[in-house]
């Protein structure tokens, strides 16, 4: 009616009509003689809004929906959009863009990014009145939503400071853990600084994560490298002949954030509008105008019927109905589905919204047989550049999903998939797989915990899809995150969860009281917001007690509601919601025996004050082990932020590596979250590479170091958003099982690592005795960096695989002479034990650089600046205390709330058969100064000859385990300069050892021994497994891998360490001397030094053969896939980078945590999970007795 009236009445006629109403347009208020002022006001708005001219709808936008659903809030076209309403000529009525090539239709342009900043404010307003540059003139008018617009402009969804802050600090680019840089633009599109008024106090900065200011992201040309890799060091003809910050001696992190799509675009820019999951506008409109992104009703509600291609269903005849990039209708909505939130809450692909759905990133391998073309794609540089703008993952160039048409129909593959199901949304061009319930062996489980046959054609229906229980109830994001969480509260926040006001207890109550319906989380106002006052868009109360039960009603679907369970009911016998498991978990006391009642907080084992609810209520969580950021020159790219200028020819692709859903880890949350016990995940564990203009790799697959010296293999406290009722954590998920079958699980839980997801990279270093060593290329160079001969290589590199398959022989390697008995790579150096020649460190920074004829050198600079060797009498083994890049010498800033790095990590540890244990200080290798690398022994330790015959050394926490003639001698190195023997484990012919949580695994002349070291001062032998010829040992999760000489590779089940299984021998190797395990994408590999046969590569697990692929420890089934014939006998291997180890066995932190105050447990905090009064404390998943 409204549109028809507007189209048939001229402005003057409408004004005359309005003059007859009991409401004066000029007075703008009801007159006293009006019988029904409300009706009159509505009629005035509908027919008149006479102070404003209207578009001639009869000839243009006939039938277009009014933007506001409420008739009391109508406005005309030009009030919001600007332009002219006194003409029907399109060019005259519409505002003209400066870039007509980009804005060539009514649809949102594809990947407009910072080009929006180049347009006039008038045009920005014309295409989107909700854009934050001009929203104060439209949505934010004084009588509308001015306060909300101000809050949104300072919200994290607009400035994105958190991601930038974490990227800089975690990778050494900026010294403050508090974010300093954020995104914000002025009315004209100029970058602007955000300042908090009044500024937060120091206490508010620390406890609330409020920020005083945020600066625009600076241009990379003004930056200095935070990680001083060899190529950044002074001297020689490198990146600059001058100091830091000159020529290209700048920080790659700053450059990558400017040009690589990560997290962005945020609210100041439109969505990329190029694939399902990326359709949206900017500013207010980004959320309140709905686009078709996902066909799943659980994600999109009633909007799912509109598809996922960003098509319009408006009645406006001028809008094409088959063109992507349009909203579903010309209508502002409060019924915002989760699919609208997911467009932005996408990165990493392991984060928040996707887990809520029960999905995570696909690994580029599982069910990949139809994801790659039979013949490799050949890309022209310009076309590849465009594709990478859509999806920054370089592996996509190898796959079918680089084709948007393929991506749109990817769910059509699900009917034939064997391992997973793909999602209907593909934001960033990524693919997401469903997560299903499974046990630790990988067996799929149904709702009753029965195993689902892998070959059952209905297995995807029978197995439990682990979506969040709130999603199963029908909840969308806005049903939990209310107005303040969505818009912000006006403060600048540095952590996402610090900006959240809702907490579990607000709706579900506690063991002592029912819900108050008052918000109480970090960002809640004093006293909280009263949820009982909220209403849905349909006019009903969002929360209401009905017949004594709390009910919540949907914000998206009318007439949809669900009961809100109360914690108090779950622990109350006789209640319809009573749950014994919940009662046990919530009321068990510190003694581990008493349970049943709501005791005082000081007695309870799991209190709300010390633990986050989701510590137990998490069903699964993601871990992303490794992100390869590979920078290439000769790649002109536009700046995605600020001015959007083209000023560089470098581009960094973004390539995730190992993605798992089987891991559960705990630590302490940030200071802003009260340092509660909370789930922790690996995320943004970066390795970096750079190729220069001559296509020379000046550094390759190097790890980063955070600003204060912790490894850049980052971990973070995390809310997984995978809450379930039945599929929660049980007692044996966090405590030692009475069956003693979770030793590996406990090592993972406590962040000590399991050696399963380790990264060996492109080169495996093989020691060959008197023939020196070789760096053997074992993977493809391009992404995905598939292991040569593997299932993934067959998929992604079909031509290369076909050629290789004929002989399965590796051919590329780089050697260096010497007498090499033991070797260990860390970063750009290789540590080598050379017997009577002592110890030497080799520079391997240019092992992948074709510009170097000698890629491995022993003297990278003149003797004036370095001495990378130490003479010893008979160095048999060299050990780095960690494979991670850890720099104890960095300065501390108290504001960052970091723990000191233990000084033991400044040393290398050498087992010398004649001199005992030798400590060498190697800390200067990480300081970026090539002029001070003079190695010298710091300590020689062999009291009374106790370490005579030392042949192996391993460190774990504050202890070194030295294998020698006396057995295994445990040496306390808490004070590295004053080591002390604390215990001796008598073994005959003690050899290599490995440690996992409470057990030491040791080889000797008789075989494998298992020793309980819960109290390392009193080791207790627990098991002996006869095994002749054992040379080397590697324990990865629940399996021990023993290189057993002529008997091959022995694989032993040590899930129950005190009851090791019968060895299964892999005879594909016949002279096994050493073994290491690593993971690439979804597959696990064993690298075996096979003596006279050279280096062997065994694929232990792959999506094509492993039914229990997603289990914590599926059974390995070796398959020989590649061999490299070494120059001499292969006798030693370097261990890969530990990607799941954030802390050592003594509680010393190793990796950076991306939140201020967050950290792994200290030793005494770990011990609370498994010791009571100094004795081992074990549990079952059943109550310890009757409730009391």
From TrEMBL:
Signal peptide start-end: none
Molecular function per GO: oxidoreductase activity
Pfam families associated with the record: LVIVD
Protein name, entry field: LVIVD repeat protein
Organism: Solibacter usitatus (strain Ellin6076)
Record key words, sorted: Signal
Highest taxon above the source species: Bacteria
